[in-house]
Amino acid sequence: MNTRTCCKRGLLFIVLLVMGAGSVCARIMPDQSTWFVDMKRFSQAAHTGLSCEACHGTMKEDGRLHPDPERPDFLQSAAKRVYDYARCKKCHAKAYERYLAGEHATAMEKTPQDAIKTYAPTCGDCHSSHYDPAHLSRVEIGKRMTEVCGVCHVAQKESYLENYHGKAAVNLGYDKAAYCTDCHGAHTCKSLKNDKTVALNVCHRCHPKASEDFTEFVIHYDEKGIAEKDDEKNRYVSRIHLVSALSLIFVILMLCAFYSHTFLLMLRKIHEKLRRHDGE
Amino acid sequence: MESNRYENQICVRFCVLHRLLHIGVMITFTLLAVTGFALKFSTETWAQGLISFMGGVPGAGWLHRVSAAMFYLIVMAHLVWLGYYKLVLKGHLTGPHSLFPQIKDFQDLCQNFRYIFGKGEPPLFNRFSYLEKVDYWAVLLGMQSMGITGLLMGYPEFFSTLFPGYVINIANDLHFHEAVLAVGYIAVVHMSATHLIPEVFPLEKSIFTGKTTKAKIMKDHPGEWNSLYADEK
Question: In 3-state terms, what secondary structure has residue A91?
Answer without folding.
Answer: coil
